[in-house]
Amino acid sequence: MTKKIVLAYSGGLDTSVAIPWLKDKGYDEIIAVCLNVGQPGTDMDFIQKKALEVGASESYAIDAQDEFADKYVAPVIKSNALYEGDYPLVSALSRPLIIDHLVKIAHDHGATAIAHGSTGKGNDQVRFEAAIHALDPDLEIEAPIRDFHWSREEEIDYAKEHNVPVPIGKKSPYSIDCNLWGRANEAGILENPWNQAPDDAWGMSVSPEEAPDEPVFLDLTFEKGLPVAIDGTPMPLATLIKNLNKVAGDNGIGRIDKIENRMVGIKSREVYEAPGAAVIMTAHHELENLTLERDIAHYKPLIEQQITSMIYEAKWITPLFDALMAFVDETQKNVNGVVKMKLYKGNVTAVARKSPNSLYDENLATYTSADSFDQEAAAGFIKLWTLPATVYEQVNHVHSQAKDKVNND
Ligand code: ARG
Prior knowledge:
There is one protein chain. By secondary structure, the chain is α/β, with parallel strands linked by helices. Helix 3 (65-78) packs across helix 8 and helix 4 runs parallel beside helix 5 (124-135). The model has no long low-confidence stretch (mean pLDDT 96). The chain is built from 15 helices and 14 strands. The protein folds into 3 domains: 4-171, Rossmann fold (3-Layer(aba) Sandwich); 176-292 and 335-360, Alpha-Beta Complex (Argininosuccinate synthetase, chain A, domain 2); 364-408. The strands form 3 sheets. It has a 5-stranded parallel beta sheet, sandwiched between helices. A 5-stranded antiparallel beta sheet has the order 10-9-8-13-14. A 4-stranded antiparallel beta sheet has the order 6-7-12-11. Helix content is 43%, strand content 20%. The chain is elongated, with a radius of gyration of 26 Å. The structure holds arginine (ARG). Arginine binds next to helix 4, strand 6 and strand 7. One of its GO terms (biological process) is L-arginine biosynthetic process. It is found in: Cytoplasm. Residues 174-392 form the Arginosuccinate synthase C-terminal domain.
């Protein structure tokens, strides 16, 4: 029987070298699959052809940008998911999507295995393999890059022997992963956390110092917790994010320089750029402030925290994740409205907001004569509100001077 394997292919040297390597390992047919998830400057035709040139028997290039935005980015927006407070889960999101496609293609072609190009030190291997196990535990897994154990020179020699074109010029010192939700960059000079990230580490944004001296204002319209229009012009989520990446990146917004805790136990230093995400998530959170009832607003972050960890930690395909997302979806029904955003030299702020579902009542909030708030009810409310602590303090005298009096007696 011909042994077939589906390879997550990027077009780069590592996954190209993986093709002859998998053949050496006994696979007869390598089916290369490259997904466009909005990584900029990707020539999908070129990548598709290149896989065939270096020995793949079939090669697919799939435009998955809308699917990525609608099914994978949307939950992150609705749940304000920022890992360890600031990383919008850029790479963590694309892995389950890629595997979803690879497993389908494996089944269509009767392939018995899937190969991915992750190293053995990162989170992505866990995310890829967790998704494969969940979708089809019978599929075998190959991780050529994890298994190579080659120096750069050995890899190049192997590439040359097997007619895999080696990019000329110096290899980028960085390891970059990019999609429409953002860009992750590690390795090289960034490995020393005391080194400031040099200019060439960034790819989606200018530095705040170089950003224009005039602010940019834009109105972001939301429906059920998701952005649907910029300045009143409706557009698909993927397009909207890409437009915001451009304008926010040009204003120096969305840079994150971070030490993070990986699943595999190590701390790593990575620089991220997520300009569009910064604008959307700031706006979304502000619209929630306007439209969520207080108990929901105070409880939801607990759920968000759990969702965020689960996305980072390869638990996308789990019943708990689905159940928590059902909770979040329920909370988003009334998150409709418009938020005016100000973009200025690396900062993004919500400066105005309105909503048909606004719970802000100006007549209740005002200090003018239009006031409809019952101020007289406040005094009784305060008495009852503080009653348990009042009784406790009167019995135990923990804070009051009366305590000393008691002790001195
Ligand atoms: N540390 C991030 C994560 O685990 C990003 C990893 C992306 N990889 C890269 N080569 N920069 O989600």
